[in-house]
Amino acid sequence: MTATEGPAAAEGPAAAGGGAPATAGGDTPGRSRDDTVATVVRQWRAVHPGLDTGPMEIIGRINRCAALLQQAEDAPLRREGLTRPEFDLLGALRRTGHELTPGELARETFSSGAAVTKRLKQLSERGLVERRGDTRDRRVAHVRLTDAGRDLVDGILPVQLAYETAVLSGLDGPERGELAALLGELLGQLEGRLGALRA
Amino acid sequence: MTATEGPAAAEGPAAAGGGAPATAGGDTPGRSRDDTVATVVRQWRAVHPGLDTGPMEIIGRINRCAALLQQAEDAPLRREGLTRPEFDLLGALRRTGHELTPGELARETFSSGAAVTKRLKQLSERGLVERRGDTRDRRVAHVRLTDAGRDLVDGILPVQLAYETAVLSGLDGPERGELAALLGELLGQLEGRLGALRA
DNA sequence: TCTTGTTACTTTACAAGTAAAATATCTGCT
DNA sequence: AGCAGATATTTTACTTGTAAAGTAACAAGA
């Protein structure tokens, strides 16, 4: 984002900047609840009328949504004494269905190796994961869920999904589909191209 | 997100879950770059066929996009020796155009008061902000940008916006407009209703 | 005027992540 | 065999955020 769209500051007016007005849910009845980003972008435009604040409308909102969603969704996890990164780690083991090495967990989980090391230590102290050394290559470890770990994940997952469904219930079916598709396209591009941009 | 959509783990298939298929840019020529979330959701569905993984497609992607965007966009800021939260704070002062109290900065910036206190300390040591006590109420302080602070923000902002534009260039104009509108609607709902849900 | 409650901000103790260095082990070549 | 360079993971030192307590100052009623 431009200036202020971290989890912290926000940006941009309603739907101006980018391109076309909303396709589907732009100006339906009770919809247009003005979001914080709209206000922030308005302020920026008043101060710097020349700048194209379009990107703020997307990036600012993504960041702000991510922050709010995370805060909200941490609740069910905390009830079970897990942080999200911890749950992500356990979830990676659960959904792949097999053992993973710390390195694979780091990649799967988009976090650093050092962070994974720390989490594994805690999770294994809690009896949720177990590790075993590779017999061929003694540098590598293999991590697997214990029964308790698997049960914990399986118990939380439906609750989380139900909670998420409730959180998204403000959008109707078609809107959710559109949003998912657009985000998927953006994400695909970001994942494919960001390395290049960064260089 | 459900299980794994923090900045860490991801989720869900392409566009299935939610509702309608993509409105505009669903299956155009070279588009459908498969994103990580799609893979993750596929894995979850294989393990738990009964669960509705729809929310993952949105929430997982928002989180992942936020993580990638943040990493990418930190670059221009770091060049100037700022973290994003620091820039957000300076930006809040710049875009409002007047002094703010620490408390207002915390609200404007969506961060805790303690965090603002720390940042202000560092930023004023660097000569980017100044503080003065309120004469009426000696509990409150007023923070303002120094000239150096203002120049720094004004110098970075265009670079950031240009960078963001480049990052979003994978989407065409109408898609960007749609995405901004949908995110705006979601965010409006989240900001208005999350407190209620949390309760 | 005391004193109770609130507000504004800061401090402290602590949890968690990161980058860079450290360890240990493997691979391929000579 | 022996060594140079890669890999896999952990360790260390440090940064930053948070929650909770602490400090200071205001407001309003008894």
From TrEMBL, chains A, B:
InterPro entries: ArsR-like_HTH, HTH_MarR-typ, WH-like_DNA-bd_sf, WH_DNA-bd_sf. Residues 1-14 have a biased composition (Low complexity). Residues 1-35 are annotated as: Disordered. Residues 55-188 form the HTH marR-type domain. Keywords: DNA-binding, Transcription, Transcription regulation. It comes from the Bacteria. This is MarR family transcriptional regulator. It comes from Streptomyces pimonensis.
